[in-house]
Amino acid sequence: MFRLQGVTVKMGKEVALFPLTWEIRRGKIYGIVGSDGAGKTTLIKTLVGLVKPTSGQLSLDRGTRIGFVPEHFGLYEEMSIAENILFTASLNGVAADVAQERMPSLLELTGLAPYSDRLARSLSGGMKRKLAMICAMIHEPGCFILDEPTNGVDPVSRREIWQLIRTYRDKGATVIVSTQYLDEVIHCDEVLFLHQGRMLMADAPKRILEQFPYEVWALKKMRQVPLSEMREFREISGVVELFQRGTDWIAYVNGSADLRESAAQRGYRLERIPPLVEDVLIRLIKEGAIHDTTV
Ligand SMILES: Nc1ncnc2c1ncn2[C@@H]1O[C@H](COP(=O)(O)OP(=O)(O)OP(=O)(O)O)[C@@H](O)[C@H]1O
C-alpha cells in the first residue's frame, strides 16, 4: 500500500526523519512507536502528504482513500455527535441512509451511543477523540491513519479506541497509528520503533520480543535489599544488566548458572520472566542498534 525508500525529512536545519525504508501492506495494524520528539508526527504527516520528503521515494497504491485523525483535530463544536458524523459523511460523498446505517455500531463500539445528541463542545477529550475517529472512518477509507489517538485518554476510552481500530482492521482496512505507550504495541500486527528520527526496528511484536538476546530473571526477596548487595550481583559473570522494576530486581543474563548459584547462597528466589517491549527498546537505544545514520 505504502512504500518508503530512503525517505528523509528535514525541518529547517534539523533532521526530523533519517532515511527510512519501510513497507506497509493491506489489512494490518501498523504501530509507530517512540517517545516525544522521536519523529512520529513527522512520519505520519509525510504519509498523509502534509510533509514532503526532503529526499527518497514515497509511493502509495493508486486509488487508496485515506482517513486521518491528526494529533490536534477539529470537530464542529456547535453540532451534536450524530450531526458531526452525518455532516462529515455527506462531505465525503456518503449517502445519508448509508451513513445512518453505519453510525449505530460505531457509536456502540466507542461507548458514545447514549450521548449522540450532545454537542461536541460539551464532550470530554476522550469522547472528542472517539468522535473524530468515527468521522474519519464513516466513508470507510482503505487506510486509516491516527496520530497518538490514546494520548491523555482514560483507560476505558483507550480500550474502546483500540477495539475500534481492531474492528476496522478486521474489515480488511489498513490502520497506521502512532503511540508513545509501549504497552499498546501488543495491539499492532507490526511495529516501527522510532528514536530521535531514526528507525530502531520494524517487525511483528512477537518477533521483536523473540529477538531479545538475553534471559530475563527477577530476583525476589522479602526484605529490603541493600544496594551494596545488588552491586555484588552485578559483578556475577553472565549478568549484563541489573536494575530495579517495582519491588523486584531484574537481571539481563547471558548464561544464568552463576547467577542461580549466587542467588541460592544469598536466599533469593529467582524467577525467569519473558522480556517486555521496554527491555527490547531500551537495549536498542543503549546499544545503538541503529540502521541508517547518514542523511
Ligand atoms: N515544523 C517544525 N520545524 C522545526 N522542527 C520540527 C518541526 N516539526 C518537528 N520538528 C522537529 O522534528 C523532530 C520530530 O518531531 P515530531 O513532532 O515528528 O515527533 P513526535 O514523535 O511526533 O513527538 P510528539 O510525541 O512530541 O509529538 C523534533 O525534534 C521536532 O523538534
TrEMBL record:
<keyword id="KW-0067">ATP-binding</keyword>
<feature type="domain" description="ABC transporter">
    <location>
        <begin position="2"/>
        <end position="221"/>
    </location>
</feature>
<dbReference type="InterPro" id="IPR027417">
    <property type="entry name" value="P-loop_NTPase"/>
</dbReference>
<dbReference type="GO" id="GO:0005524">
    <property type="term" value="F:ATP binding"/>
</dbReference>
<dbReference type="InterPro" id="IPR017871">
    <property type="entry name" value="ABC_transporter-like_CS"/>
</dbReference>
<dbReference type="Pfam" id="PF00005">
    <property type="entry name" value="ABC_tran"/>
</dbReference>
<dbReference type="InterPro" id="IPR003439">
    <property type="entry name" value="ABC_transporter-like_ATP-bd"/>
</dbReference>
<keyword id="KW-0547">Nucleotide-binding</keyword>
<protein>
    <submittedName>
        <fullName>ABC transporter ATP-binding protein</fullName>
    </submittedName>
</protein>
<dbReference type="InterPro" id="IPR003593">
    <property type="entry name" value="AAA+_ATPase"/>
</dbReference>
